[in-house]
Design brief:
The complex is a heterodimer.
Chain A lengths: L3 E2 L5 E4 L4 E7 L7 E6 L6 E6 L3 E5 L2 E6 L4 E6 L8 E8 L7 E3 L3 E6 L1
Chain B lengths: L4 E3 L2 E4 L5 E6 L6 E7 L5 E8 L2 E4 L8 E5 L5 E5 L8 E8 L8 E2 L3 E5 L1
Classes of the chains: A mainly beta, B mainly beta.
Amino acid sequence: QKEVEQNSGPLSVPEGAIASLNCTYSDRGSQSFFWYRQYSGKSPELIMSIYSNGDKEDGRFTAQLNKASQYVSLLIRDSQPSDSATYLCAVNEDGGGNKLTFGTGTQLKVEL
Amino acid sequence: GAGVSQSPSNKVTEKGKDVELRCDPISGHTALYWYRQSLGQGLEFLIYFQGNSAPDKSGLPSDRFSAERTGGSVSTLTIQRTQQEDSAVYLCASSPPGGSYGYTFGSGTRLTVV
């Protein structure tokens, strides 16, 4: 069974701090990795994708990938209350077409 | 269309009735996916379409669930003889052809079986 693991949280950080969200995956052949943000009662929204080892930055968001450790993370700098949501890690299965396996998500709370 | 469109947005049905959920993907997106999300739970894969064919339907929970896609566009997920455990948000997503891309999700159909 191919798995994507995330700490369910909640992860609480003060406004302006860096939030660090982590994800591990079991399929060593996975090639594509995604972070989705899901506000309560809404559908998931794609915020970051990463395909190569290293860091990828987009505004306040940085995705980090380490394929050797089967680990992907999302950093949110200068966290804002509007960042409070559940963050879902998704991994493209090796040989699975474009099928994504999702983690159960980490709930982030940014406190004033 | 501009986004993935799902209908209805909410559906309340009596146990034992059949329901149909509709998904209209982004124009040009050849891949279409159905997931469901129970309250407080993660996303559960149901079925994946590439064009009109379904290479992976491994997530359909029982033979009460079926899905089809016609014209490489609209998809319908049908649940027969609904049960209370079918209550969930049913999410449809689509992605462009070729390579590996993240999905764009629709706003979902909230199904409540009473």
